[in-house]
Every structure is written in structure tokens, then in C-alpha cells.
Amino acid sequence: MRPISTLGPDEAKAIRFVLMDIDDTITTGGKLLAESYGALWRLHDAGLVVVPITGRPAGWCDLIVREWPVDGVVGENGAFAYYLDDGHRRESFHPAATIRNDAAVFSEMRQAVLEGVPESRVSKDQFSRLFDLAIDFAEEAPVLPLSDAGRIKTICEGFGARAKISSIHVNTWFGDFDKLSMAERFLAERFSYRSVEDIRSVMFFGDSPNDEPMFSHFPMSCGVANVRRYEAIMTSLPGFVANGEGALGFAEGVDYLLSVRKA
């Protein structure tokens, strides 16, 4: 991982799209700080396309796309994208997102997880999800070790589900989609993005294993410093890394990107 301070002028000026994870990437201690929210506005005011790419639920994404300075949001680890069009909220669902989380298999999987990892619990935002089950291991107390998150992931995969570990949840779903596939689909639909030709026009900020598809694909990805906590369980790391953690690391990366673009 290169320090973000080594980002060159040509690299910075090629960026058109800035994508970012939410939890522990633009937040610190569960809060969206003034520094990171201001950074979103600075990106918006600079004319860049801004799109959060998150594991958070549909209910959160509805608020985000309406109230934040963003051009869309990809939610539930790639199940859908929401965006505003002429004042109306629109949605684009990934074609592989066909099994909603009210299917019987989710109840069976949830029971297996809660019995297999006794201190785990269903995320408090589960009520506003459409396609996935989120198991909380670190958002609220007790904070469980990463080894428990790994056990949760293994149980879910035993049901044939996909599962990803974030900094706070294990998200699990059925269907061949992830953050990367929906992000590229949305950018292509809305902004004529071309996966091969435009790959260096995207900068993605993230922090944890569920961001690996983005890190592995986009050479201009940047981790906030807390990504280093997960190096031992990740196979794909970002191309760059900020000095700061969470919200402050994101603001640091954005401000450096924008300053170099002006040089």
C-alpha cells in the first residue's frame, strides 16, 4: 500500500468517480464526523461523482440518497442502487438479487448462527433490509473477536450463502453479486462508465474485508489506516492508505486528492 501522499497529479486528475464504504471509513465510533461529511461536500462541489458503497440496509440508503451530497448509493453489499432522478427516488436492482430475506432459509441460517456463536445477535437495522441478514459482532457490546466473525461466515456459507465480514457485521445473502458488480453496473447505467477503459477514473475508499472486491479491482483504491487491522485475513489490499483512521483518514485522502487535482 502506497501512502496517499504519493498520489501523482496525473493519477489525481484522471479521477471522475469517488466511491466509499461507510462504517469505519467515513465514520468514527459510529458517527459521521464534520470532517468526513464536509469532505463529501467538497467532492460534490468539485464536480466529481460521489457514491457510497455500503453493506447498510435499504432504509438507510433511502435517507442517504435523499439527504447527503451524493449521486447515488449502492446498498446491502451490492443488491441494489438508489439514486434521485428529477426529484424522485429511483432504484436499480442487481439481476442476481432474487431471494429476499423473508425466505425460510434465512430463518434457518439465523438460528444456526445464534446457536453456533452464542454472543452474536441480529443487527438492530435488520428491520429495514431487503436481501440480506446482518449479524452484529462489533457494532454493539459485547464486541466479539474476528475469529467469531469468521465462524459466523463459515456457518452462513454452509447454507450456500455468500458472506462478508465488515468492521461491525457479517452480512450474508443469496445471489452472485457484491459491492463491485453493482457499483460498476450502476456507474455504467447512469454515467456511461466503461469497466476496462475507465478503471483508473475511480477512487474507492474502504476499511475492511467486505471491501476486498473493490480493492482488488480498482488500482486507485485507498484504505483508511484501520484497514491494517484486517491484513491477516485479507488477500486484496488497497493501492493506497491514509495516515488517519476512519472519518479523519477519509477526509485526509479526499483533501489530498483535491489539492493534487488543482496543482
CATH topology of the largest domain: Rossmann fold
User: From the coordinates shown, what is the CATH architecture of the largest domain?
Assistant: 3-Layer(aba) Sandwich
Put simply, the count of helices is 8
Mean model confidence by pLDDT: 97
Helix content: 25-40%
* Strand and helix order: EHEEEHEHEEEHEEHEEHEHEEH
Number of strands: 15
Short description:
With 263 residues, this protein is an alpha/beta fold. The chain has helices at residues 9-13, 34-45, 58-67, 104-116, 146-157, 179-191, 212-217, 246-262, and strands at 2-3, 17-20, 27-28, 31-32, 49-52, 73-75, 80-85, 88-93, 121-122, 133-136, 162-165, 169-173, 202-206, 222-223, 240-241. A hairpin with a 3-residue loop joins strand 11 and strand 12.
Keywords:
263 residues; alpha/beta; Rossmann fold; Hypothetical Protein Ta0175, Chain: A, domain 2; 2 domains; four-stranded antiparallel sheet; 15 strands
If you had to describe this structure to a student in words, what would you say it looks like?
The chain folds into two domains: 2-96 and 177-262, Rossmann fold; 104-173, Hypothetical Protein Ta0175, Chain: A, domain 2, CATH 3.90.1070.10. It has eight helices and 15 strands. A six-stranded parallel β-sheet has the order 1-15-14-13-2-5, covered by helices on one side. Strands 9-10-12-11 form a four-stranded antiparallel β-sheet, with helices on one face. A three-stranded antiparallel β-sheet has the order 6-7-8, sandwiched between helices. The chain has helices at residues 9-13, 34-45, 58-67, 104-116, 146-157, 179-191, 212-217, 246-262, and strands at residues 2-3, 17-20, 27-28, 31-32, 49-52, 73-75, 80-85, 88-93, 121-122, 133-136, 162-165, 169-173, 202-206, 222-223, 240-241. It has 263 residues and is an alpha/beta fold.
